[in-house]
Model the fold of this input.
Amino acid sequence: IDPEQLQLQLAIRGLNKADLARLARVTPGTVSRAAAGRTVAAATLARIVKALDGVPVMPTAAALLSGHEET
Done:
């Protein structure tokens, strides 16, 4: 997992690592390891991705973080 991309995905969804851990049904430590760029099992990665996919992106947050105005 790309740590910067994971942080961005959390931010544009208004989540923190604890939220993601709860949604993915993994431990907070697992999310922290992934956020640090450390290896996680493929099944764990799938749970994290599925959890992120289940939370809509907040358009304003995405625009702010990308440096572009919302259109």
